[in-house]
Amino acid sequence: MPILQWRCAHGDAPAQTLSCAETVAIAPLDDSVDSNIVRISGCGTIAWFGDGPAITKRIIFGPGIVVVHNPPRLELLTDADRHISALSIGIYSCQGSGNWLEIHFTSTGAAELSRRIDAMEQRLATIERRLRITPELGGG
Question: What is the pTM of this model?
Answer without folding.
Answer: 0.73
